[in-house]
Amino acid sequence: MITFVSRYSNRNRCTFALAGLLLFVALSACTATPIEQEKLVADDGAPEDFFGYSVALSGDTALIGSFKDDDDTMGVDAGSAYVFTRSGKVWHQQAKLTAIDGAANDTFGGNVALSGDTAVIGAIRDDDKGDNSGSAYVFTRIGTVWSQQAKLTGVDTAEGDAFGQSIALSRDTVVIGAPHDDDMGDSSGSVYVFSRSGTTWSQQAKLTAADGAEGDVFGISVALSGDTILVGADLNDEKALNAGAVYVYSRSESNWSQQAKLTAADGAETDIFGVRVALSGDTALISARRDDDDVMGVDAGSAYIFIRTGTTWRQQAKLTALDGTADDRFGRSVALAGDTAVIGAMFQDDMGDNSGSAYVFTRTDDIWSQQTKLTAADGAADDVFGWSVAISGDTTVIGAARDDDKGNESGSAYMFDIDYK
pTM for the whole thing? Predict the structure, then answer.
């Protein structure tokens, strides 16, 4: 186990005021490049929409899930997702996406993924294959117009599978988790891979763990980079009860095979290692948000970096927050782009109880260092800023699903431009 300490003092902070925006960033060094910020809310946001529950980012486009959005036609908690685009440094709402066949309690928008002009949106309580069997919808953009291209379900999806609980997308491949599928025992879990040819999507594979067992919830999280998939099974018991594990799969032509099973070197009971995962090339970022620390306390949380050489994976680092405390849940969300990692801590208390924060780490050679801690200038108790995070290039989006700008728990998302070159 390796824990790296920031090369900057956490006490040395800078505050940057941007015209028209009142957001605060606690920087760990004044020498770091300033961070530009904007706050997003839905044009039609309403109480208990939970806008920002899920987020995705690709270039100048952001996708924000609002899984409890109500619709006059579809009903309560049908759900929606919003598309925002950036012009210069300003973000504008471009579209609101809903399912053509959406219905009450589908929770469309609980999970989202974005790659270029394609978006995939999960609806884990959709009932096409039985109550709460789940589904995922594909939308594509031509110009500025988004339209539904496909609705995906597994060939053998069944009642209670929660298909769509996790989603990863890269070009013409989408990976979808169904953590309550029962192939290897009750809620052992599975993952489906779909590929697109033209405008047609077809199921390419169904993945299960070689040693899958009841209650593992394999598929609670997924990540995709090129021909590699990460699958979290955060209740796997190999290291200890609910310590968690992550499985790696690689593709040769159209065939997927298990390459490795990853566990934390210091994995322990109820760490739930693998509850969230991110992948960029040969680097994996894996959350253990209920990891306990002798100094920080119970459920302070951590995240692990694994790297691949050839076909062999090894743990490179364990990341924790410099100012972490008990129940911060550092690792509630994770995102990774090259040598930059963003990690949410939804219950951190800088702006009030459970106001939330997010941390940025960067890698130089093999050393990971905490660069920045992000909070919202208007953050308040129970906003859970850091509930969701995504990164693309030098931009990151942080969800605050219980922010109250449009009413109680209407939700919001914050945009940050980060650059440490």
Answer: 0.91
- Would you say how long the chain is, in residues? 421
Q: How far apart are CA 67 and CA 70, in angstroms?
A: 9
Pairing of strands 90-97, 111-115: unpaired
Six token digits for residue 339: 């040598």
DSSP 11: T
> Amino acid identity, residue 213?
A
**DSSP code per residue over 81-103:** EEEEEEETTEEEEEEEE--TT--
Q: What is the mean pLDDT of residues 357-381?
A: 95
Question: Which two three-digit tokens encode residue 149?
Answer: 């291209």
d(CA 382, CA 255) in angstroms, rounded, equals 45
CB of 123 closer than 8 Å to CB of 95: no
Amino acid, single-letter form, for residue 296: M
Query: Residue 207 corresponds to which tokens in the numbers above?
Result: 């993945």
Residue 11 binned pLDDT confidence (cut-offs 50, 70, 90): very low
Partners of 230 in the β-ladder:
223, 248
pLDDT for residue 99 is more than 50: yes
Per the listing, tokens 């609910």 go with: 242
Q: Which residues contact 142 (CB under 8 A, 6 or more apart)?
A: 117
pLDDT tens column, 107-123: 999 999 999 999 999 99
Distance, CA of 126 to CA of 121 (rounded, Å): 12
Q: How many CA atoms lie within 13 Å of 359's alpha carbon, on the beta-carbon side?
A: 29
- Output the average pLDDT for the chain: 92
Residue pLDDT, tens place only, 59-87:
999 999 999 999 999 999 999 999 999 99
CA distances (Å), origin 308, targets 25, 133, 250, 312, 323? 33, 35, 12, 5, 30
Cα 215–chain centre separation:
22
54 bridge partner residues? 65
